[in-house]
Specification:
- There is one protein chain.
- Helix content is 53%, strand content 12%.
- The protein is an alpha/beta fold.
- The chain folds into 2 domains: 163 residues, Alpha-Beta Complex (Conserved hypothetical protein from pyrococcus furiosus pfu- 392566-001, ParB domain); 114 residues, no CATH class.
- The longest helix has 15 residues.
- It starts with a helix and ends in a 5-residue tail after the last helix.
């Protein structure tokens, strides 16, 4: 419950003065019945995939009980634009409803509409990792927010936002496997330690064919890193490999340990953006 309140506060801080806030949407004007045919989908909807079986189940519930939670729409020249409730709208269409209950709100600029749709999906927790990554990325690229700002306003940690956005750096084949749920987001983050696209895709095929766990995938990636062109003088021990994998999991990036004589050595920590470097500094307690 407290998490939802935090999300609401964050959303209201991001929406400019005069735009609809989440609290005003929930406690605003009375609900009205409006024609389903007059509602256009939200063009900024962060979710691109909807489970057919889940929609059919919701449709049957709507036929029996009606739409229990009103949609949120905003006026448009040709009717209404959907702000929040795309899943309910699609299920209502399947149920053959002519009208649906909705709160009509001027939801403000595109940023507010995207934020409202994103928060609704985050609260449901069934948005796909790639859809979430694309939505986070749009907030950063199109609306000028830093990853830190997105994290604070949506109730996530900065590293969680950064790690989610990093999924978009995977090859198209790896992203497709994630979308089809053949691998998890944690598998993809492990595969991102392979910079060469062809090798990353070939490794994916091995992971899927062998049904490797995330931990086994990390070990495989660590072994492949040992075979890279920049070869080490001696192969690392299993303990060093395990430590590399553990550090990679903790830091959410690629880590290479090169032991040397006399107990000395070198640790190389990769980062892939300025925000990731900031995140590493934050983890190490370094303030610049």
């Amino acid at each position: 419950m407290s998490k939802h309140r935090g999300l609401g506060r964050g959303l209201e801080q991001l929406i400019p003065p005069g735009a609809a806030t989440l609290s005003s949407v929930l406690s605003g004007p009375s609900v009205r019945e409006i024609p389903v045919a007059a509602i256009a989908p939200n063009p900024l909807q962060p979710r691109s995939q909807f489970d057919d079986a889940s929609l059919q189940e919701l449709s049957r519930s709507i036929i029996q009980y009606g739409v229990l939670q009103p949609l949120v729409v905003e006026p448009a020249p040709d009717g209404y634009h959907l702000v929040a409730g795309e899943r309910r709208l699609r299920a209502s269409q399947l149920a053959g409803l002519a009208t649906v209950p909705a709160v009509i709100r001027p939801a403000g600029p595109d940023r507010a509409r995207l934020e409202m749709a994103l928060v609704e999906n985050l609260q449901r927790r069934d948005i796909s990792p790639l859809d979430e990554a694309r939505a986070f990325n749009r907030l950063c690229d199109e609306f000028g927010l830093t990853q830190e700002a997105v994290a604070q306003q949506l109730g996530r940690s900065r590293s969680a936002v950064a790690n989610t956005i990093r999924l978009l750096q995977a090859t198209p084949e790896v992203q497709l496997a994630l979308a089809e749920e053949r691998v998890s987001a944690a598998h993809v983050r492990a595969l991102l330690a392979i910079a060469e696209p062809l090798l990353q895709t070939k490794t994916l095929a091995h992971v899927v064919a062998r049904h490797l766990s995330v931990r086994d995938t990390e070990r495989l990636v660590a072994r492949l890193a040992m075979r890279a062109p920049a070869k080490r003088a001696t192969a690392p021990s299993p303990e060093v490999q395990a430590l590399e994998a553990a550090l990679a999991r903790r830091l959410s990036t690629r880590v290479k340990i090169t032991p040397r004589a006399g107990g000395r050595g070198r640790i190389v920590i990769d980062y892939f953006s300025a925000d990731e470097l900031d995140g590493l500094c934050e983890l190490f307690g370094v303030n610049l």
